[in-house]
Each structure stands twice: as C-alpha cells, then as structure tokens.
C-alpha cells in the first residue's frame, strides 16, 4: 500500500473533526488525494452500526457488546473504504480508529487489550495507522467546547460518567507513551489554526 493512514484520537470535544477538515485542506493544496472518514462509520454497513451504538439507552450494550460492534463496523470500513483508498495512493484521515476501542471499551469499560487486539486482527486484518495524533485539552476546556456545541445534549457514548472519561484519558496517554514512533501528542488547547500548524509540522517528514 502506498498511501498514508493517519488517525486523530482523543476524548470528546478536543477538536478532532475540526482538525481533520483543516488538515485535509492543507494536504489537498499540496496536491495530495485525501480521503476523510470517521469511526464508527465510513462505509454503508459501518454507518448502520453507528446508529446502533450511538443511540438508545445508556445500558443498551455492555462494553463487550460495544467492542464487538465497533470491531464489526471497523472491518467493513477498512475493507470497503480505507484499504482501497490506501491502495490507490490516497492519504486517509480517520476521526478515531482502533485506539478509541482500546481507550473507551478497554480503559473505560474494562475489556482487555488482548481481546480488542484479537478482534482487530480478525476483523480488520491488523491494519494499523502510520501516524496517530492524540489531541489533548484540559477537561474544563473540553467541557466548555461541548457545552457550546451540543446544546441539545450528547449521544449515548458521550454521556458516560466523569470517572469513565478519566480512565479513557489515562489510557490514551498510556498508549501514546508506549508507542512513540506512531503517536504524536498535540496540545489542542490553542486556537484551531495553531493546532493545525502543529499537526502539519509533525507531518513534514512525509511532505518535503
Ligand atoms: N482549537 C479550538 N479552540 C476553540 N474551539 C474549538 C477548537 N477546536 C474545535 N473547537 C470547537 O469545539 C467544538 C468541538 O470540536 P470538534 O467537534 O472538532 O471536536 P471532536 O473532538 O471531533 O468532538 P467529538 O469527539 O465529540 O465528535 C466545536 O464546536 C468546535 O468548533
Ligand atoms: C471508534 C470508537 C468510538 N467510540 C465512541 C467515542 C465517541 O463517544 C463516539 C463517537 O462519536 P464521535 O462524536 O463521532 O466522536 O463513539 C468508542 O467508544 N469506541 C470506538 O472504538
């Protein structure tokens, strides 16, 4: 595969979608074919599973059920959207990927990393991002941004309790520290264009 697979990770409201859009613009003006996608979703089947995951009562699924559904959605997304794009040389920018399952259903929900990785090997044939950006902001800043954005309330996954959010944030930090060649930790508390410039600087090795 000749393209590049880049993922953005982090908690709710840290600015992943905002940065993916800005990064896509930055890469497009450099003549790169960019595919912007997201999880859960990014293919017809995966978008249908997204509906199951994000709507309904808090206890609609337990963490194991969620892990299976996210893995099934990802299998379809990888097979139908991500791999074909990478094979034709596009850069794929994905809003969340398997590291979100490791943080949310793993760190937050208690599913073991070994089980999540086994599902990933089977479902997505062990496809891993080439680079992953962890966007970090303080919980207070994330809460401010979400309050401004989600005036009508959050979805099922966004309504998890604070201690769940704290466990998943710790898990993201742990994963980034364990694999520094793949991860880049970004201070996303600055103004959006400053954050975009930081991310682009972290891609210079592929751009020059
Ligand atoms: N650097 C920034 N400074 C201030 N506000 C920001 C910044 N980046 C994004 N925002 C705003 O914060 C809100 C959340 O941003 P965004 O939707 O991009 O986050 P996200 O990480 O994709 O969230 P989620 O995981 O919940 O989908 C939006 O209203 C967005 O306009
Ligand atoms: C991929 C993935 C996502 N989640 C959670 C994280 C968020 O709460 C939602 C997705 O909503 P977004 O506004 O589109 O970011 O789903 C998860 O728990 N596990 C995963 O693998």
TrEMBL record:
Gene3D superfamilies: P-loop containing nucleotide triphosphate hydrolases
UniProt domain Thymidylate kinase-like: residue ranges: 8-191
Entry keyword Transcription: no
Alphabetically ordered keywords of this record: ATP-binding, Kinase, Nucleotide biosynthesis, Nucleotide-binding, Transferase
EC number: 2.7.4.9
Record-linked InterPro entries: P-loop_NTPase, Thymidylate_kin-like_dom, Thymidylate_kin_CS, Thymidylate_kinase
SUPFAM superfamilies linked to this entry: P-loop containing nucleoside triphosphate hydrolases (SSF52540)
Chain sites annotated for binding ATP: 10-17
The keyword Transferase appears for this protein: yes
Catalytically driven reaction(s): dTMP + ATP = dTDP + ADP
Coiled coil: none
GO molecular function, one term: dTMP kinase activity
Domain of life: Bacteria
Role: Phosphorylation of dTMP to form dTDP in both de novo and salvage pathways of dTTP synthesis.
UniProt family annotation: Belongs to the thymidylate kinase family.
Name assigned to this protein: Thymidylate kinase
Organism annotation: Sphingopyxis jiangsuensis
Protein's gene: tmk
